[in-house]
Task: structure prediction
Amino acid sequence: MRFRVRTGLPWRGMPEEYGPWGRAYDLLRRRQRNGTWQRIFTQLQAQAEAEDLIAWDLNIDSTICRAHQHAPGARKRGTCRRSRPAASPPSPTTTASGARAAA
Result:
């Protein structure tokens, strides 16, 4: 799991020497659901705090940070929908060349 997290590879891209990717994924999810990762994080944080390795000078609360306008779940502006399928060609009078010919 360290390999997967460290390299950022997709699950299916894990080397075969680590076994089937599905088994590694299931193990990670099981440990997440039963709180193993949270307990490890809490213990490491407590240890670092006891050794005065954490400077609590800055706290960034991501709940107030805005996502990029194109991020998934971003608010859509307007409800404009196409009146015809994209595959149908535009009528000649609505194109720039058609408008010039009509004038």
Residues 47 and 53 are 9 Å apart (CA to CA). The radius of gyration is 27 Å. The mean pLDDT is 77.
